[in-house]
Amino acid sequence: MSNQEVLLLNSDFEPLNVCHLRRAMALIMLGKADVIQHHDEGVRTASGLLDAPSVVKMKYHVRRPMPELRLSRHSVLARDGYTCQYCGAKGRDLTIDHVIPRWMGGPHTWDNLVACCRRCNLKKGDKTPQQAKMKLKKTPRRPHFIPYISLPAYLKAQRRDEWLFFLPVFEAFAQEGHG
């Protein structure tokens, strides 16, 4: 089977996580979760072909503390769509750049960190974008929401049409998931 990921929902349909097919099947077989939606293709087992879940919902409510939107390399890259904020290059081989360099008092915050390709990072060096004659594609901001699933998982989940109905819509990322 090509797609081994399953969207896991809480009993109130709040997205909890994106888990592996094996974990979802275990939750279903243990009677802890119900299948809400199946994948188009099945999964082969020793006893034959089974419908593979795409979305499962817990039968009981999983209490979770209010999540914190953690500032991390992966969250900054996900927020910026894995795109260099200077030249627009896409990819996974990106670094994080401090817009205002740390030596100039630039903080390690959402508003001062951007995804940056290695070429642009070398070109900018320890200068501000203005000093390096470079322009940001968009002003970095702290996302204005806190999803229960991580920002990278949320953005990845947005690319799956069959999961969109179950995901809350956050304006800053509403169109980016279909890029």
Could you characterize what this model shows?
The protein is of the alpha+beta class. The chain is built from four helices and six strands. The longest helix is centred in the N-terminal third of the chain and has 9 residues. The C terminus is likely disordered.
Write a brief structural summary:
With 179 residues, the protein is an alpha+beta fold. It contains four helices and six strands.
In this structure, how is the largest beta sheet organized?
4 strands, mixed
Count of DSSP-assigned helices: 4
Helix content: 10-25%
Distance between the termini: 24 Å
Residue runs with pLDDT of under 50 for 5 or more positions: 175-179
Q: Write down the overall geometry.
A: elongated
**Mean pLDDT metric:** 85
Q: List SSEs in N-to-C order.
A: EEHEEHEEHH
Structural category: alpha+beta
What attributes characterize this protein structure?
single chain, 179 residues, 2 domains, four-stranded mixed β-sheet, two-stranded antiparallel sheet, 4 helices, 6 strands, 17% helix, disordered C terminus
